[in-house]
Amino acid sequence: MRCNWQEAFRAPDFCAPGDNKLHLSLLPQPFIGDVKNASIYILELNPGLGPSDYYGESEVPEYHDALLANLQQDFSKSDLPFLFLDPKFAWHGGFDWWHGKLAKVIEELQSLIPPNKTNTCKFAEARYLLASNLASMMVP
Fold it and tell me: E-assigned strands of the chain?
């Protein structure tokens, strides 16, 4: 069943602190990224929940499709297997969280990449490199 943004934001407990009920209308996220081919793995607990989860799955088909592709581990239509470092999903809370946690790593990685034609390695290039090699999995 696909989630419904209209019902979600009209619910009396929408975004209530301490919400611990199961949100069964959202797709599961047991892992993010290319689990088979990643060279960096991060183990984590519950990824959390925010209003952008319901909005994205219900109102943004490209985001919903990216989540499904991630679950199927089919990255044939994506440039970045780790979708929460993909700038096209920068509006989502997952991007905000992951990008915030990894910004310093991306900056450090940027300094290790050989310069391109302009003698600089752009931050976006380093983010792309990390997102192409990173996978995250939930552990109980």
Answer: 31-33, 40-44, 134-138
Q: What is each CA distance from 11 to 8, 20, 51, 85, in whole angstroms?
A: 5, 15, 12, 30
**Structure tokens that stand for 102 in this block:** 């990894």
Is the CB of residue 55 less than 8 Å from the CB of residue 5? yes
Cα within 13 Å of Cα(107), Cβ side: 6
Instruction: Find the length of the chain.
Output: 140
Task: Quote the tokens at residue 124.
Answer: 């976006």
The CA-based dihedral angle spanning residues 4, 8, 11, 15, taken in that order and rounded to the nearest 10 degrees: 170
- Domain-wise residue ranges, the chain: 29-138
Dihedral in degrees, nearest 10, Cα atoms 104, 133, 68, 24 = -50
Per-residue pLDDT tens digits for 3-45 = 677 777 777 777 777 777 777 788 889 999 999 999 999 999 8
| Cβ atoms of residues 96 and 52 within 8 Å | no
- pTM comes to 0.84
CA distance 111 to 76: 29
Which residue is it, tokens 């809370």?
93
